[in-house]
Amino acid sequence: xxxxxxxxxxxxxxxxxxxxxxxxxxxxxxxxxxxxxxxxxxxxxxxxxxxxxxxxxxxxxxxxxxxxxxxxxxxxxxxxxxxxxxxxxxxxxxxxxxxxxxxxxxxxxxxxxxxxxxxxxxxxxxxxxxxxxxxxxxxxxxxxxxxxxxxxxxxxxxxxxxxxxxxxxxxxxxxxxxxxxxxxxxxxxxxxxxxxxxxxxxxxxxxxxxxxxxxxxxxxxxxxxxxxxxxxxxxxxxxxxxxxxxxxxxxxxxxxxxxxxxxxxxxxxxxxxxxxxxxxxxxxxxxxxxxxxxxxxxxxxxxxxxxxxxxxxxxxxxxxxxxxxxxxxxxxxxxxxxxxxxxxxxxxxxxxxxxxxxxxxxxxxxxxxxxxxxxxxxxxxxxxxxxxxxxxxxxxxxxxxxxxxxxxxxxxxxxxxxxxxxxxxxxxxxxxxxxxxxxxxxxxxxxxxxxxxxxxxxxxxxxxxxxxxxxxxxxxxxxxxxxxxxxxxxxxxxxxxxxxxxxxxxxxxxxxxxxxxxxxxxxxxxxxxxxxxxxxxxxxxxxxxxxxxxxxxxxxxxxxxxxxxxxxxxxxxxxxxxxxxxxxxxxxxxxxxxxxxxxxxxxxxxxxxxxxxxxxxxxxxxxxxxxxxxxxxxxxxxxxxxxxxxxxxxxxxxxxxxxxxxxxxxxxxxxxxxxxxxxxxxxxxxxxxxxxxxxxxxxxxxxxxxxxxxxxxxxxxxxxxxxxxxxxxxxxxxxxxxxxxxxxxxxxxxxxxxxxxxxxxxxxxxxxxxxxxxxxxxxxxxxxxxxxxxxxxxxxxxxxxxxxxxxxxxxxxxxxxxxxxxxxxxxxxxxxxxxxxxxxxxxxxxxxxxxxxxxxxx
Amino acid sequence: xxxxxxxxxxxxxxxxxxxxxxxxxxxxxxxxxxxxxxxxxxxxxxxxxxxxxxxxxxxxxxxxxxxxxxxxxxxxxxxxxxxxxxxxxxxxxxxxxxxxxxxxxxxxxxxxxxxxxxxxxxxxxxxxxxxxxxxxxxxxxxxxxxxxxxxxxxxxxxxxxxxxxxxxxxxxxxxxxxxxxxxxxxxxxxxxxxxxxxxxxxxxxxxxxxxxxxxxxxxxxxxxxxxxxxxxxxxxxxxxx
Lengths: 858, 241
Known about the structure:
Chain B: Pfam families: Met_synt_B12. The complex is a heterodimer. Chain A has four domains: 40-321, Alpha-Beta Barrel (TIM Barrel), CATH 3.20.20.330; 335-594, TIM Barrel (Alpha-Beta Barrel); 626-730, Orthogonal Bundle (Methyltransferase, Methionine Synthase (B12-binding Domains), Chain A, domain 1); 739-856, Cobalamin-binding domain (Rossmann fold), CATH 3.40.50.280. Chain A is 46% helix and 13% strand. Chain A has 34 helices and 25 strands. In chain A, the strands form five sheets. An eight-stranded parallel β-sheet of chain A has the order 1-10-7-6-5-4-3-2. The radius of gyration of chain A is 30 Å and the shape is globular. Chain B is globular, with a radius of gyration of 19 Å. The chains are: A alpha/beta, B alpha+beta. At the A-B interface, helix 3, strand 8, helix 15, helix 16 and helix 29 of A face helix 2, helix 4, helix 5, helix 6 and strand 7 of B.
């Protein structure tokens, strides 16, 4: 191929936003056999880890030493003073640099503004680099300077487009390779690597920068960076900038076992200090090279320098490399997946737990949570599974009545906020899978492909392209085979295809599929033998099993599940998909780890089970907590409020007192007491709501301040949750008082005010659809239209984001004119509210609740 | 000759509980022991997660001029940063040098805020107030560093002034952060609406003068920089001597 801009799926898209539209089948087999355009044999050997390579040192500090003013845009010098840039490159070439790095670190469209185009700067920069006589020209690509979603506001696809523009410009200008560097955000690094991979066929070098604590600013570890980026398709991974080389050395050592590609290091010359008006770096070339020698000895094969380094440092490194050859190193072949903050690996013989709870199938409350857009329940499930010992969380949003793809992406973004476990993307729709894994900052598991040709053709290329692990179900066009051998045959066909696509064996996880023992008692044996056969006949692959189907139709199912899980471990099972909050299942896992030797000296087992016996059975932490909290300290309960304590035998008075005191602990027990003698409506309308009204009055008068209002809302919510649980058990529906959507507007990430309003509205019995923060106007409108909402609440904290509020309201007026709009937030006032076209201004959360009542209770 | 900005870390071991309560709108309400305990826990958690770091530079005032539209601006030597507007004209009137800093308590705090926003709304409010107090404390520390730098050259400072206040434009942020290399060194990013993330970050400028200013501290007793001041220890004098 000669035209680098037309041969990739991304290039075929107009704006890069319509991820779901990619027809991955077309690209079967091309992803991991990405044919690189490599300039010469030496570079080819470097990429194979067979040769060493020397980059250059700093550009920025060299320019400052030549008088570049602080805060000036250095990339523009490629156009205004190309001789100076070429001179710096030349000095490095003379010192021994084989690669020079273009002066394009910040050359992205938003940073250049009107001063020049990305294409102009890359064209001039590559020309400057070539003019130096360097052997290779590396096109430098730095971070965008904006923070990506979900922590920031820049969408992944927008970051991708910025990088794609740079990649195309650099390729067209004649660069030999890309150096994506100084990345702190794994999602951003992933966007850049994907842009390079999809818009060019030049080799990709990618480095991240780490802090003293061994993590990037966003919390990524060297192991996670190495595993994720090398799986994704970076040809060389490593560390740059950060600290001095002595501090970088141990971090780069941590990368080495997890990178299947060569590893590079470009450290700073330590920290700068100013002496007599001159900036000096505290590590001199000799000391610098000592540390680099250690890194070479450990297996690093590509070196250079970052901030503060000069041609003198590079000359020292050139001498280091003279006569050297790469040091052999071992790359770990364990099953390993990552989130942005955590690598989870499974050495041979170890077993792992995948939490199954985030899946609506057969779960009423999960269904309701996904349908209503109230994800609090999902987040709680994630946290409790994490606490219970899950190592990966399965995420499934497959409900026919919701937008599965959008819901899955939102859930995955939110889940990263509450758990650092890697995720397993669970969907039957290939486009949904691709959209989810593409922007996921880490290496996820895809659940799943199966033996059907059509499914394999669609899903396997996605796993290969994005470097994911892949669950392979032993089912094909003919259904689930009855026998172990039949399952092996399906697995064999899938693994042949994953081998061909270049997916490493340890990333393929075969699921022999559980069938009910009650309908076919030969099924358990076939499954267990299947696991053993697959592991023997397809060396390197791993196995996984969702076990609970085995007990379908039988009484006391958990017992059967646990027994079967133990048998499956004995048969060679590596990963189980279970509910880790069921103590019985985790008991099997924990005890098996002793029997298999995974739990060395049974340390974890002894620590967790020393006090346990059948006489003193499992202490479910949640139950214990609830039990402790269920004893309301009646005397002390309302103290601090200057009120007499209610009688201990009057649960109604006590519940009211607890809400006023903001004490949620005793609420579940009190509500149970109340519901024993009263109906649900009484509990809501005569207990909780009057208490909340009193809270509102006190807040209004200033006898309560905000945290007290919120503590009361928490206590009331605990009461409502109990009512819900009791109701769920009895099958009675409590009618919602109506639905309302809330969000913080586009461009604003301050969600505190919105969260307070949400809390209060939920308390008053409204179904609150929380659209989150930094929300596109169209998303608000679509929700209002889809749910036929009568009212929506918009929040903005900053003056800068008030226009976004006006845009949202304008769009609502156009497409959903029936909907009333309430606005609030720090910068808002009645005049502003009028100016942006809102129907109501709410000065605080209590007033929001009153206004919503006015609108909906009419 | 331009010099690289100074990178500094500060140990912040406590924050003023009363100030945290003020951010929460507290006016002598009677608070339950539970709420008190949660506030203490939020403050402790913030101090444990937060890591105060600053990038600091001092530039000579190069000139004072008017933009074509008549807006005054103060230009500085060796940097593309200029101080635009009437507020800066007043704040820097007579200044010889300008100290500039960016300070943040880090992305860890931001991550915790995000976690709390998904799990514990009251916890988020309490933690946010603690974090705001902590970053202001960090800004006190950065200001103290500048007071010391000025004093060593025989200069006196006024007080810190941040973009977005008075008529000092938010558009100052990108150049200011670039001059301090704050994106790379501190991990501070800017949204298209010029908001910083981590949100618990402060940028500011401080004037440095030949003579004490009305706002220069007259005594150490009530100085907010006191905990971070090493001037007397290193030079034997105070900033107002």
